[in-house]
Write a structure and sequence with these properties.
By secondary structure, this protein is an alpha/beta fold. The chain is globular. It is built from eight helices and 14 strands. The structure holds ribose-5-phosphate. Ribose-5-phosphate binds near residues 169 and 226.
C-alpha cells in the first residue's frame, strides 16, 4: 500500500511508512500567491491501493480541502482504492442543529469526503457525543480507532505510579478511562462536568477514592485546557498525589499547557495526531495496522 501524508501529517506519514519498512510516497503541496492550495501527486498510483493521512487541526478548513484535493486526485490518477486516515477529525462536535439556522458541519464534511471518492475512512478518538458510531455518519466504511491503549502503555512504561487511579474528566471519558485502567491494572472513575461556554467548564465536587494516590487523567482532547485544570483542582481537593495527564489530541489552544502545569500537573502527554511539544506517543502503529489488515 502506498502511503501519502498531506501537509498536516507529513511526519506522521513518514513514521507510518517506517513502521511498514517503506518510503512515504511523494507529493507536492504549495500555495498560489492568492492563497489557493496546489496539489501534485509525484508517484505513479495507477492500480495501487493508497493510504492518505491528513489530520484536520488548527487550520481545519484548509487541511480538509487539501485532503479532498488529494484523494480526488488519487482516484483521478486511477488508484485502485483510497483509504483515508484523518487522525484528528474536526467538525464532529457540530453533529446537529443546536440553535435555529446553524449548519450541521459534521454532515456536510462527511458528504464532501464521500464525494471526493474516498473508499474507506479511519479516524482516531473522534469526539462522538451524540453519534454512537462514526459509521452511521458515512455511507462508505468508517471506523474510529482509539489511541488510549498506546497512551496507557506509555504511562506504564515511563512513570512509577503509587497506587494509581485513572480519572476521566467527564462522563464521555468513561470509555477511555476504563481502557487505560485495564492497561494499568487498576480502577477508574469519572468526574461530572458542566460546560459553561467554549472556554469555561465547571467540575462538580464528587467523592473519589483519590487520597494519597497517583492519578492518571485521560481525555480525548485538550483544547483550552479548562477541563483538565478544573479536574486537577477537584482531584487536589480530594488529596490526590502526583497527577499525570494524557490525551489523544493535543489541540493546546492558547496557553493551555502552561495553565495545566500551573494547576499542578506532574506531566502531560499526548499523541502525534496533532504536532505539539507533548507528542510522546505516536499513533503510527495503529495506522500501520490498518495497512497490514488491508493486505
Ligand atoms: C469534551 O467533552 C472533550 O472530551 C474534552 O474534554 C474537551 O474538548 C476539552 O476541552 P477544553 O480543553 O477546552 O476544556
Amino acid at each position: 500500500m502506498l502511503i501519502f501524508g498531506g501537509s498536516a501529517s507529513e511526519v506522521l506519514a513518514i513514521r507510518v511508512a517506517r513502521e511498514l519498512g517503506q518510503d512515504v510516497s511523494r507529493l507536492e503541496v504549495k500555495k498560489f500567491p492568492d492563497g489557493e492550495k496546489y496539489i501534485r501527486v509525484l508517484d505513479d498510483v495507477a492500480g495501487r491501493d493508497v493510504l492518505a493521512i491528513q489530520s484536520i487541526y488548527h487550520k481545519p478548513d484548509e487541511y480538509l480541502l487539501e485532503l479532498l484535493f488529494l484523494v480526488n486526485t488519487l482516484k483521478d490518477l486511477e488508484a485502485r482504492r483510497v483509504v483515508a486516515v484523518v487522525p484528528y477529525f474536526a467538525y464532529a462536535r457540530q453533529d446537529q442543529r443546536f440553535n435555529p439556522g446553524e449548519s450541521v458541519s459534521f454532515e456536510i464534511v462527511t458528504k464532501l469526503i464521500e464525494y471526493a471518492g474516498i473508499d474507506e475512512i479511519y479516524t482516531i478518538d473522534t469526539h462522538l457525543h451524540r453519534v454512537p458510531d462514526i459509521s452511521r455518519m458515512f455511507k462508505i466504511p468508517a471506523h474510529n480507532l482509539s489511541a488510549t491503549r498506546l497512551l496507557a502503555k506509555y504511562v506504564k512504561e515511563n512513570f512509577t505510579l503509587r497506587n494509581p487511579l485513572v480519572i476521566g474528566p467527564d462522563e464521555e471519558a468513561q470509555q477511555w478511562a476504563s481502557i487505560a485502567a485495564k492497561e494499568l491494572n487498576t480502577d477508574h472513575d469519572v468526574l461530572e462536568k458542566k460546560r459553561l461556554g467554549p472556554e469555561r467548564v465547571e467540575i462538580k465536587p464528587k467523592e473519589l477514592n483519590a487520597r494519597n494516590r497517583d492519578i492518571v487523567v485521560i481525555d480525548d482532547i485538550i483544547s483550552t485546557g479548562g477541563t483538565i485544570v478544573e479536574a486537577i483542582r477537584g482531584l487536589q481537593k480530594e488529596g490526590a498525589s502526583n497527577i499525570v495527564v494524557a490525551c489523544t489530541h493535543p489541540v493546546l489552544a492558547g496557553n493551555a499547557l502552561t495553565k495545566i502545569y500551573q494547576a499542578g500537573a506532574h506531566s502531560i502527554i499526548g499523541t502525534d495526531t496533532i504536532p505539539s511539544p507533548i507528542g510522546y506517543v505516536s499513533v503510527s502503529p495503529l495506522i500501520a495496522e490498518i495497512c497490514w489488515r488491508q493486505g
